[in-house]
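Example record

One chain of 195 residues, shown exactly as stored in the release files.
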Amino acid sequence: MIAFLKGNFVNKTPANLIVEVQGVGYDVQISLNTFSAINQLDNGLLYTHLQITENAHTLFGFATISEKLLFLQLISVSGVGASTARMMLSGMKPEEIVKAIVQSNTAQLEKIKGIGRKSAERLIVELKDKLAKIHDINVVEGLQSVPSVVSDALDALMALGIGKSLAETTVKKAMKETDQSVSLETLIKLSLKNL
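Predicted structure tokens for this chain:
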């Protein structure tokens, strides 16, 4: 409904932010991760998610689109509400959460306040495959590449009929053989040579 807000950051706390947009102040709930990203800024853009319940309309703000997308994935899990998802994003960096879920690290997730063993296991069961596909392969596999080039190369290889695990292995190997500014075409060619 409200995709983003661009304006002045009037009042910042680690959990809350008021964004003034053309004379209107929006009360936005934020994570500690977002607070760290905007703490030194007087104005900017926040990606937002409006949650409407029978008791309230709550606006959540995120410094990056990837943090917002992860938040939406987290709240899609049964038993994980917006407050818990925000707590997770305050307790761990988004890439750490993705890595913990993809690697089935329940112990890491249980360190977050409000996440017990059952919740951690549910997050892993419901999100492991989704996060491995949606989020950056560099987060999952430890690559230092430009995420869109890696994911586009993976998509291209899978479209050619190559299985996901083999595609990931060959792309990872190709990334080690080249630099980070590799073009998509070059990455695909290198990956195909590694088959």
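Notes: Confidence is low (pLDDT under 50) at residues 137-146.
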